[in-house]
Each structure stands twice: as C-alpha cells, then as structure tokens.
Amino acid sequence: MLKSRKIIWIALIFIMLFPASASASEPYDTFYVNHGTGSEWISFMQDVYMTGDMITGSDDTALNRPADLFVADNDDIYVADTGNNRIVHLDGQGKWIRAFGTEEGPGKLSEPEGVFVTHDGLIYVADTGNQRVVIYNSDGSFTKEFKKPNSQFLPESYYFVPVKIVVDDRNVLYAVSRGSYQGLVRIGKEDEFTGFFGGNKSKASLMDRIKRLIFTKEQLEKETAIRPQEVSNVTLSDEGFILTTTTGVGSDQIKQLNAGGSSNLKGLKHDSEQIVDVALDSNQFIYVLDQRLSSRETRGMGTITIYSPSGTELFRFGKVLQEPDQRGILSNPVSIDINSRNDLIVLDSNLSMVQFYTRASFGKTFFQAATDYFDGNYEKSKANWEEVIKQNELISLIYSGLAEVANKEGNIEAAMTYFKITYDAEGYSEAFWTYRMRLIEKYFFSVLVSLIALWLLYRFAVKPYAGALKRRLPKVVQMVLDDLGTALYTMLHPYEGFYRLKGRNVSFLSLGIIALLIILVKIATVYWTGFIFNPMNLETVVWWINLLPFLAPIVTWIVANYLVSTIKDGEGRFREVLQGSVFAMTPFVVFSIPIIILSNILVLEEKVLISSLSTVMWLWIFTLFIVKAQVTHNFEFIENIRNSITTAVTVGIIWIFIAVSAGLTFNLWDFGYQLYKEVAFLG
C-alpha cells in the first residue's frame, strides 16, 4: 500500500513539473494559394488569423440585423444597426460608446444600411428607408441630408435608394443605389449630380446573339432589355481608389476603379458569385468577404480571401454555416473592415454580432516580408522570409522573395534554384539570361574551338570511311540504316519518297525502330525540355499518360484513313498506310531534338524561335500525311482533300464511340460491384 502511494505521488510531481501543453485549434482551415507559371495549387497551413472577440451586446446595446460597419481612423467602429434604425458607435475594442439616429427630428433614421466616416469625423449614413443620405457631426448631431438629386440626367422614374456610400478626399460622394444598374451615383461637393460611375457591362448570352442575327427589328424591340448586374457594395482605399463588389456574377466581382471608371485589378480572380464586401489594409493588401456556405464541395475555398496589392491570391480561411456552433464561424457575413492593428472585423447580420479576427504571429512575420517584397525592398525582406521559412516551407512566395534577394546579391545560381522551386518561368528566365552571359564570357572560345575540332574530325576522319564502315555492318543493321535514310529522303522529297514506299513492305523491325524513336523523343520533350518552356514538377509526371494524347490521334488516323479510303476505292493496303504514317512522323524526330536543345539555351524573350520551329514541324507533318494519303491511295488532289476531311470526321466518331463504350463499361462494372456489396452485406 505504501509503495502504491509513493508511485502516485511521483506521478503527480512529474505531471506538475511537465504539464501537457494546451493548444486551441481554430474552427476553420487556412490555405495558401501557390502560383507558378500556368499553374496554381493550394497548401493547407497554420493560421494567419485567429478568432478574436465576439461583440453581441445585450438589451439596449444588442444589434438587430446590422448591414454595414466602418472602422474610422482612430479605430472606432460604426455599425449600421438596420433593425434598430440607428448607428452604433463602438471603440476600437468593441466596447459600447453610444448610438444615434433614433431621436425625433430630421436626423431620425429608417433602416440604415450603410455608414462611412471621413478623416475630419463627419459621419455619412445611407438612410435606406428614407431614401436619402444623412450627414452627422462627430458628436452624432444632424447636419444635412441628400435626397434624389435634381438633374435633367435623372428621369422621374429613377429611385434613389442608397444602401452603401463612400466619400473621397474631395468630398465627392459615391453611393450604391438599390436597383440602379447604371453604376455608382456620384454627387459632387456642391451637392450636384455628376453622373454614374463604375457601372458593370451587360453580357449577352449565346441565345441573345443568335436572336440578334435572326430576329427582326420589331421582334427585338419586344425582347426584354439586357441589363448589367447592379453594383452591390463600395469601398474607399487609403490611396483614394474606389473599389466595388458585385454579387451574382462569375467574373469581375471586384473592381478597383480608375478615373475613367474601368478596373485596375485585371489579374484578380475569385470563383464565388456571393462576394459581399472588400477591405484594404494600410499596405494595400485586399481582404474579400464571401457569403458562400461552407461544405465538403467548397472546402479549400474560404470565407475570407486575402490578395496581394497587385491582385494575386494569397490566403483563404473562415467558415460559413447556417447554424454556427463555434465562435469564429459565421452565418451571414455582410461587411468587413480592418483597423490599424490589422485586426479583421466582420459583421454578421443573422447573428447580429461583430467578430474580430486577430493576426497571428506567423501572419505578422509573413505580411511584413510580403510588404517589403511587393514594395521592391527585397534585401529588407530577407530576414523575415528566413523566419517565415522556419515555420512553413511550403509557401511559394517565400522562394520568390529569396530569389529576388539572391538576384540583387549577384547569387544567380541560388536565384535560379529558388525560381525553379516556385515554378516561376519568367523570373527563372531573367536570372538564366545573366547566368548564360557569364558562361558565354567564360567558355565561348573553348566551345568554339571544340566545335571546330569535332567538325574537322568528322570531315577528315569519319566521313571518308563511313561507306566502308557501313558495308562491314550486319545486313540487318544496313537495312535499318537504309530505311532511316529513306525516311529522311521522304521528309525532304514527299511525292518521290512515298512513291518509293508504295508497293514495298518496309520491315517491321525498321518501322518499330522509327516508332520507338518517335516515342522516345516524345518522352524526351517532357523530361528534357528546358524549365523556362516547361515549368512543371517532373516528379509528378507519368510518362505513359503523356503518350496517350500524342499517340491516340495517330493510331486512330491510321485506322480511319484505311477504312475510309477502302470504301472510296483507295489502292493502299493497311501496311502501306501504316508505314507511310510512321514515315510521315519523321519531322517530329528531326525537329524535336534541336527544339529540346534550344529550350535549354534560350530565354523567354527568344521563344519565337522555338514556337516557329514547332509550327513548321507540325505543318510539315500535316503536309506529309496529306501527300502520303494521295500517293498511297492514288487519289486526285481534290478527291484526297475530301477523303482527308472524311477521315478526320471518322476519327471524331471513333473517339466518341470509345468514350461512350468506356462510360457504359464503367457503369456496368459499378452496378455489379454495388450489387456484390449489397449481397455481401445482407448475407
């Protein structure tokens, strides 16, 4: 008994000395969006933002269906408390200060849905229920109002129903008016209507275009006019740019408008049609709020998406559920803003609450490094990137930043390595240009002498004895070499070359070797093409999968051409069609080898040479296939063109048949498998 007590006391002392570390996991996942040349992939990672305080209030301070919030310069928060017909003023920590707009008089509000505070403290409110914009002093006292502007450019039927507003440094007001497809209503500092701004463009469907072609003018007049989607929200950046969001569209949901009303964010893309608001921090990083419900299908999408100042997607996090069961999960987010501490503040209408998200330690380090990177301060960002990489080495932007640092320091080999990690072909190309220049300066004379020596060796030591050496080779090898020579001759002299093949049986050994060369060269184009022109992870490449889309058209063309030509009384036998088609692919081998070599030497600015060679190669192959069909089947030119078109259609039919057969086979197999599982379960 005494021994047992001693063991228990020792265990308790051990637990007290070495307590288990407690950890709190966020109720949502965070993902980083990696970008490479022509590719994009997401990585699950640690949180950049953590769930902070949740402000709900109680009794008189409780919110009711709030619709908008705004963070002032001093970090105070203003909420458009729609259901309570008031504006709620909170301090930077979310503590109640006051509410105004409920007093009788000209300042009384009716279902306000938007609020904005200027640098000098004036509070603008979109008094939606009263169809006006109200201005209050910083103490909450009424100053003036804007109703529908008196302008000859606004018809009597136009309703001014402001829901969101911003005011720029010139005291020009921009208002989102419900039902207004023309864009933002712009009101100048003299209270005059100065026009609509930043409206969306209407997009005609395929059916609409068809109607325009075939309908009469009278019929078109009876059709419902195609209206663009109305702007849903508006935000003003610290630099004075107007940003709009549009709900219900699949592209251009977010626009950063220039003076002409067009968007500067051409590269920003988002895959949701339920974007409701956008905010920008002091370094111009963009935070997008999405109302889309979270589900298994939308995992990895996120509720809040963070973009770089140039519109490159960086992070996704957050979750939206109809009935949230944890703090930090939202139900119906309607507005987002950010304070000077870089806390994200989100307003939820269904939950009638304000949710804070605080930037995690990892997020602070990352955004400091990213800020320096996007500002071009690469050397300054190095220490922060090195700290970030200690915590997460899967973020591609880290290596982009370190690559730029290495470039500035003159460490070109390291820069190329980092650019390759991020699959950044453009950055790699710029670094490789410098690396290539160094090699040329160092080894140009040696390479030139070596090339001249090799040519002299071939000219005086190999070529004079090539014929005698060939005659000493086994007859099988001589035959294969002759067939390879015939393939090259046919490439340069198509008609004469294919006439030589007509009626002749090329050995299957020679055909197999040529076919094997074609396959090997195709595999070489995948694995040995220079990174600049093939920026991909070769470890994930499955060589035979890359061969299928290359060989399938050739094989189906051979079969289809033989079948169609036989029906049309073509003279060619299947073997002649086969060997002619194999010989017609000779340019692929001849051109691909120098293309592979050049792809490891040239940079992106010189890609026109590679693209030109590729174009010539495929045109050459196409021409050889046409000539082969004409000579093999003894067709006239026009007849051969018709036959080739019919062959192409037949190829398409064969592919459709294979696809349908594969689908039916899979469904039959799946039915049998499910039936087996059910019988096994019941048994």
From TrEMBL:
The keyword Ribonucleoprotein does not apply. GO terms for cellular component: membrane. The chain crosses the membrane at residues 443-462, 508-529, 541-565, 577-602, 608-627, 648-669. Keywords: Membrane, Repeat, Signal, Transmembrane, Transmembrane helix. Residues 1-24 form the signal peptide. It comes from the Bacteria. It is found in: Membrane. NHL repeats lie at residues 57-93, 98-139. Residues 490-656 form the Yip1 domain. The keyword Glycoprotein does not apply. Its main location: membrane. One of its GO terms (biological process) is protein polyubiquitination. CDD domains: NHL. GO terms for molecular function: ubiquitin protein ligase activity; zinc ion binding. It is a multi-pass membrane protein. This is Yip1 domain-containing protein.
